[in-house]
Specification:
Blueprint lengths: L7 H18 L1 H14 L8 H21 L3 H11 L6
Helix pairs in contact: 1-2, 1-3
């Protein structure tokens, strides 16, 4: 899937949203995302395309993980069956 590269502003906004979500679901993830946000705050990340791609992937993965954490065990099992993946993936 080809996605348009995100801007630094979009990345910061998404990280802030994820931090707010993670505070109630997994506080340690919120702390790690906060550290990441603090690290990129003053960086010129838009000029470093590999860093932008890396941060976009972290955002995508963290968002997916947080969604999975809100599912019941039965819903998770159904999701794994529907997507034909094992829980370890």
């Amino acid at each position: 899937m080809i996605r348009q590269r995100q801007s630094a502003i979009e990345i910061r906004l998404q990280l802030r949203e994820l931090i707010d979500q993670a505070k109630s679901i997994k506080p340690s993830l919120a702390v790690r995302l906060s550290n990441l946000l603090r690290w990129i705050k003053d960086k010129q990340i838009t000029q470093k395309l590999s860093v932008v791609d890396f941060l976009s992937e972290i955002i995508l993965d963290a968002n997916f993980w947080l969604i999975l954490q809100t599912l019941t065990p039965e819903q998770k099992q159904q999701f794994y069956r529907d997507e034909k993946i094992s829980p370890a993936e």
